[in-house]
Design a protein that fits this description.
Elements: E1 3-7, E2 10-12, E3 18-25, E4 30-39, E5 46-51, E6 57-59, E7 67-72, E8 77-82, E9 91-100, E10 106-110, E11 114-118
Parallel strand pairs: 2-11
Antiparallel strand pairs: 1-3, 3-8, 4-5, 4-9, 5-6, 7-8, 9-10, 9-11
Amino acid sequence: QVQLAESGGGLVQPGGSLRLSCAASGTILSINAMRWYRQVPGKQRDLVGTITSSGSTNYKDSVKGRFTISRDNANNTLYLQMNSLKPEDTAVYSCNADVRLPTWQLRTYWGQGTQVTVSS
């Protein structure tokens, strides 16, 4: 069984920074793309950005230049460095990952989410 666990959320003032982590555990052969999403109550979940297994990234326009996605392949961990945070970044942030299992199946797993609140 594969699990993704996010950490690092919390309350931060506008202009501040937070770093989220997403650790994958379980029997994993390899991980392809990993992603960060965010969701505000009453709205659709929104893709923040993606990182491939080779480290290529892309981001939604509103976070470009402020957020950075990275990963540690040796430890199956995904990161989201968020700088210059704005109140509109307030959301529940979730990670997902395309995991290659020892059976060679490719399955997508989700973390449980972590709350980020940007407020003075």
